[in-house]
Amino acid sequence: MLTHFWRYSHLFLAVFSSIFLLIASVTGIILSTEPVAEHLNSPSDKLAADTINLAQLVPHLKEEYIEVFSLSVDREKAVRIDVIGFEENKDGEFYIHPSTLEKLADIPPKNELYTWVTTLHRSLFLHNTGRILMGITIFLLFLMAASGIALVIKRTNGLRHIFTWIKKQSNAQYYHTLLGRLTFIPIAIMSLSGTILFLNTQFETSLNPEIEYTALQKETINPASFPIFQETILSEVIKLEFPFSEDEEDYYHLELLEQKLKIHQFTGEVVSEQNTTWIQNLTALSMTLHTGKGQWVWSIVLGLISINLLYFMYSGTKITWKRLSSKTRNKVGPEVAEFIILVGSENGSTRKFANILHNALLKSGKSVFTTDMNYYQVFPKAKHLIIMTSTYGDGEAPFKARNFLSKVNELKQLNTLETHVIGFGSMIYPKFCQFAIDVYEMLNQNKEFILKALPTLIDGRSYISFGLSIEEWKKRHSIDLELPNEDQKRPAILSTFKVEQKQLVDDGYVLTFTLELSPQGNINFQSGDLLAVAPPGDDLARYYSIGKTEGGNILLSIKKHDLGECSSYLLAQEVGDDLSAYVKENKSFHLPKKGDVLMIANGTGIAPFLGMTSMYSKQKKTFFLGGRNPLSFKLYHKIIQQNKSTDLFNTLHFALSKEKDNNRYVQDLVNENKEEVVHLLQNKGSIMICGSIKMRDGVLEELKNILEEEKMEPLEKFIEKGRILMDCY
Ligand SMILES: Cc1cc2nc3c(=O)[nH]c(=O)nc-3n(C[C@H](O)[C@H](O)[C@H](O)COP(=O)(O)O)c2cc1C
Predict the structure, then answer these.
(1) Up-side HSE of residue 125: CA atoms within 13 Å toward CB?
(2) Suppose 655 and one of 425, 525, 560, 664 were both cysteines; which one would form an S-S bond, judging by CB atoms 3.0 to 4.6 Å apart?
(3) Domain end: 265, 299, 321, which one?
């Protein structure tokens, strides 16, 4: 509920203030350059401001000029005077060196652009109405920052974890959160100081009373001996106005940072004093914090924050669009639908998968109803229930699925439901797809639900895994259904590949075969990319990891599945045949350019590695290969031997799982070569894993134990940093 509150407050505030915030940000960027320009234009020789006092300067000035009207020290600590001089070029207002009184520079005229932009920034040229609008906007910016940070705290499970790493789901989501955390404090300072400045324009601030002192001294003394002048160093002064005439009633008016004083021009006595109020001090501080005037480094920070605000507007719009565009349009209600899809999604990606299934079921004429898991209810006509849910926090339910388990206990369905659970999560979290597992376990104990298969757990939103899970589900229940190609929005352009070589081997357990395909045309790819193939008449593409041969061909290694339409289709290809398919870049499984690499594969997972062996020849590559028996490697024998003799496989280890005397799995190789693995990970090396999910889980378990034993960074960190790369199926 709380997450909901913060999310919608954040969104509402953003929408409400968007136009004004856009103007404020763009003008803010321009205005942030003003203090920098002032700093650059200000005379550089102004160091004496901190060491010289008024007693040293005032008599000196009086001697040097015919008439002195005022002396002021600007935010850059440069000293200006307004005088009538003996020479023409020493007349009027200009900068001086405080110790030599030498003229340093003329005062540049005020830049019209800055004046114009300042008015737009402050009041939109609408006087007080504009000031109120911009004032509200800046306060809303503070509320947005606060609600945004509350959302992050909620999602990271508390303030203590606020800086924990967040997984990159999409660029917009990732950078919105990352920059939000980094810039919260400067945004809060900028927005609160802006709000204070606005309030100051709306309410008259009363001044502290002026305290008058009775003059005691009658004797005339030289300004050089005035105690107040001796005590006041230049950098504390804002302005000193000189007496206009020799009339005793004409005083020096001295404006300091926190005081205004009137000083008797002959005796040097302070005749009245007015202290600034705390409101005035706060306003002055807010002025510096909001404008960066006199603090050019801070003004650069303010400029960057304003640029950042533009990015927040862009990324926030993108996130909201993604969330809204993934809403499902139901054609029938829950009371009549035969298929029910229940979704547990926080950021919309799981819902997208649910929509794909929803639309595919609709297309094949089924009555389907999709809703959030929290809206679980009695579905009187339902026969099939599919639950698709992500996991959040530390293995918990996404917000819109939190009430599901309790509702299942409260409600009783009229029919038993054939149920399948699909979990979406990320392997970098210790509790991978935990909520989907919890749902599965609970429903499995409830007689209202029939669960014929274990839940499918999908890592990194893999469409391939989703497609395979739905394939199996539809076969189990004989449902007629076609999922669209993954790239529905951007239809893939199919390329032609000629079959150059084909080899097959049956190791007594499975039939495996390799195909070498030559691209007919200019196609860019590298080992680790994927070749998408769909059998004729089938929209669902299956992906195969590519090995790139030295001759630039594609090497595929495929296991023949008993009911696999695509593997049967590929097996039917003969040398000389043309095959239509397309290459999909798979950056997350490209060979790292730096550091040594340990490649771990079982079965057909060897294909991409065979292509990688000849890349970056200075890199040490170690290879752990798992198969059932020696026949499992027969297909690759030639390539392995070739590479072995040229030293490309620096080290090659085999594990045979069906050997009578010495049966081992690849994960056993990891354990046996523990020292090498540790050395690799400690020395910027990477591990690449390709093959079955079961093998991957075994290897990861082994690696996790080793890292714990060695007190190294946790496994998740290595995966997060891209030092452990996986392509498993
Ligand atoms: C803060 C946070 C916590 C997460 N915790 C887990 C977790 O414990 N287990 C898991 O498998 N995935 C976890 N994930 C990954 C999400 O479940 C995964 O990215 C999923 O695809 C998001 O789906 P959605 O966009 O539908 O919400 C977490 C993601 C985030 C941002």
Answers:
(1) 5
(2) 664
(3) 321
ipTM: 0.99
Domain match, 136 and 117 both: yes
Residues 22 and 52 in one domain: no
pTM: 0.55
User: 169 C-alpha vs ligand 1 centroid, how far in Å?
Assistant: 9
385 and 505 in a single domain? The answer is no
Q: Cβ(97)–Cβ(234) under 8 Å?
A: no
Per-residue pLDDT at 113: 93
**CA 425 / ligand 1 centre spacing (Å):** 5
Predicted confidence (pLDDT) at residue 48 exceeds the cutoff of 60: no
Distance 437 CA to ligand 1 centre (A): 14
Answer yes or no: do 576 and 599 share one domain: yes
Q: Which of 442, 476, 510 is the last residue of a domain?
A: 476
Residue 595 lies in a domain: yes
Task: Out of 390, 396, 427, give the residue to mutate to test ligand 1, the one with the largest number of ligand atoms within 8 Å of its CB.
Answer: 390
Q: Which atom of ligand 1 is nearest to the CA of 390?
A: 17
Q: How far is the CA of 167 from the centre of ligand 1 (A)?
A: 8
- Ligand 1 geometric centre to CA of 517 (Å): 38
Which residues line the pocket of ligand 1, CB cutoff 6 A? 155, 166-167, 169, 345-350, 390-395, 398, 424-426, 429, 431-434, 461
Q: What is the mean pLDDT of residues 75-95?
A: 87
Confidence at residue 500, expressed as pLDDT on a 0 to 100 scale: 95
CA distance 182 to 186: 9
Closest atom of ligand 1 relative to the 167 alpha carbon: 31
Atom 29 of ligand 1, residue of closest alpha carbon: 392
Separation between Cα atoms, residue 80 and residue 166, nearest integer Å:
52
- Please report whether residue 613 resides in a domain: yes
What are the pLDDT digits (tens) for 226-274? 999 999 998 899 999 999 888 888 999 999 988 999 999 999 999 999 9
Judge contact between 459 and 466, C-beta under 8 A. Answer: no
| Ligand 1 center to 388 CA (angstroms) | 13
560 plus 633 within the same structural domain: yes
pLDDT at 636: 79
- Examine the domain organization and report whether 8 and 142 are in the same domain: yes
Same structural domain, 243 and 188? no
CA separation for the pair 35, 41 (Å, rounded): 10
Of ligand 1's listed atoms, the one at least distance from the Cα of 394 is: 8
Contact (Cβ atoms closer than 8 angstroms) between residue 49 and residue 97: no
Q: Which atom of ligand 1 is nearest to the CA of 457?
A: 11
Question: Is 108 part of a structural domain of the chain?
Answer: no
Which residue among 3, 165, 167, 394 is best mutated to probe the pocket of ligand 1, counting the most ligand atoms within 8 A of its Cβ?
A: 167
Ligand 1 centroid from CA 392, angstroms: 5
Residue 254 lies in a domain: yes
DSSP 204: P
What residues contact 487, with CB distance under 8 A and at least 6 apart?
A: none
Alpha-carbon distance of 383 to 420, in angstroms, equals 12
- Cα of 152 vs centre of ligand 1, distance in Å, is 14
Range of the domain at 51: 46-96+207-276
Q: What is the pLDDT of residue 488?
A: 46
- The helix (H) or strand (E) run that includes residue 54 is helix 54-64
When mean pLDDT is compared across 202-216, 390-404, 659-673, 690-704, the lowest value belongs to 202-216
Q: How many CB atoms lie within 10 A of CB 257?
A: 11
CA–centroid distance, 424 to ligand 1, in Å, is 7
Total domain count, the chain: 4
**C-alpha to C-alpha distance for 397 and 390, rounded to whole angstroms:** 7
Q: Which residues of 9-28 are buried (b: 16+ CB within 10 A; e: fewer)?
A: bbbebbeebeebbebbbbbb
Residue of higher predicted confidence among 663 and 703: 703
- How far from chain centre, in Å, is Cα 459? 20
Shared domain for 17 and 120, answered yes or no, is: yes
Q: Over 70: is that where the pLDDT of 489 sits?
A: no
| Cβ within 8 Å of residue 181, ≥6 positions away | 149, 152, 162, 163
